[in-house]
Amino acid sequence: MRNPWTRTGNYKTSYAQDTTIFATYSEQASLVVFLIGMLVLPRFLSRGDMQILDLILIYALAVLGLNIITGYAGLINIGHAAFLGVGAYTAALVAPYLPFWAVLPVAGLVAAVAGAVVGIPALRIKHLYLAIATLAFQLIFEWAVGHSPALEQGGAMAMPRVVFLGYKVGFKNHHYFWYYVTFVVLVILAFGFRNLLRTRFGRSLVAVRDNDRAADAMGMDPGRTKVFAFALGAFYAGVAGALYAYWSRAVVIEDYSLMISIKFLAMAIVGGLGTLVGSFFGPAFLELLDINMETFSYWIKTIYNPPGVDVGSAIRPLAFGLAIVLFLIFEPRGLANWWRLLRSYFRNWPFKY
User: One Pfam family of this protein, by short name (predicted)?
Assistant: First the structure.
C-alpha cells in the first residue's frame, strides 16, 4: 500500500493523479509550515528589513508574469517594466475613487489590455524581431508618460493613504501592512500560476514555445496563444505595479524604465525560466546581492579609492552583470535547479538510488 507521507514508488493510475500539485501529505504539511512562517516573520524583522522584503515580494509577482510570457510561452519580453508602469499609473489615477482592493484588479486588467495589444505583433513575428517590438513598447511608454500632462510628465504622482476596516495605514505600519497584502495577493496568483500548466491554455503555451507549427498542426492557435500569454503576464505585472505604487507612495517614471525591464529578465534567468520557485529565488538573490554589494562598495571606498576612479560605484553593476553571465554559463536552469537537486537528495536520503 502506498505511503501517503513519503514517495515509495510510482502508484499513479490516472491523469488526475499525475497532474496533482501535492504528491504526498508531507508536501502539503511543508507548505502550511512555510506559509505560517511567512505570516509570523514580520514580528522578528525591523522596518528596514521589511522594506527589503516587501520589494522582493512585489518583484516576485512581476517575475511570475514574465515567466508566463518568456518562461512558458518562450516569447522574449524586454518591456515588462512598462506593463508595471501601466498598472502603477492606472492605480494612481483611480486610487482616489476606489478602495485599494478594487484598484489592484483594475490595474491588472488595464495592463492586460496593453499586453494583448503588444502581443498582436507576435501573430507575425518572433524571436529577435518580437524582442525589438517589446523594446519599442517600452520606449513608447516612457515617451508617452514623459509628454502627458495628466501623468505629471513622468514626475511624481502621489498615492493616497489607505484606509482599511476604518483604520488608516500610517508611517509606522506602512511596510508591515503592504507586506501582508502583497503576500496574500502573491499566494493567490502563484496558485494560479502553478495550476496554469494543468489547463489546456497552459499546455498550449508550452506547445507553442517548443514548436508553433507542430502546435498548429495539433489544433492549437499559436497566434491566440501568444496574445493570451502577453495579456496574462501583463495582468500579473499590472497588479505588481499597483502594489509598488502603493508601497512607494508615489509613481515615478524612473521606476519603470528599460533598466528595470532588463533587471526583471535577469531575475527570471537567475531564478529559473518557467519555474514557480525561480520566480521567488531570482528577485531575492539579485536584490540581496545588490544590497550587499552596496555595503561592500562603501567599504571599498574607505580602503582603496584612487583619484579619478570611482571603484566603489562600479562594484554593483559589475556584480549584477557577472551574476547573469555566470548563471548563463554554469547554471542556465537557474536556482530552481539547485532547489530541485536539494529536494531530490533529501527525498532519497539515506539511500543512493
Answer: BPD_transp_2
1: pLDDT strictly greater than 50 = no
How far is the CA of 92 from the CAs of 56, 158, 245, 311, in angstroms? 22, 7, 7, 39
| φ/ψ of residue 151, rounded to 5 | -110, 25
Per-residue pLDDT tens digits for 329-344: 998 899 999 988 888 7
Handedness of CA 170, 187, 95, 137 (dihedral sign): positive
Band of pLDDT at residue 158, cut at 50, 70 and 90? confident
Domain ranges of the chain: 36-348
Would you state the CATH architecture of domain 36-348?
Answer: Orthogonal Bundle (1.10)
- The CA distance from 221 to 198, in Å, is 18
pTM of the model: 0.91
Which of the residue ranges 2-16, 133-147, 229-243 would you say has the lowest mean pLDDT? 2-16
Q: How far is CA 17 from CA 7, 13, 87, 302, 333, in A?
A: 14, 7, 38, 59, 27
Q: What is the pLDDT of residues 278-325, one digit of tens each?
A: 999 999 999 999 888 878 777 777 777 666 666 667 788 888 889 999
Q: How far is CA 116 from CA 69, 192, 282, in A?
A: 11, 19, 26
Say how far apart CA 141 and CA 138 lie, in whole Å: 5
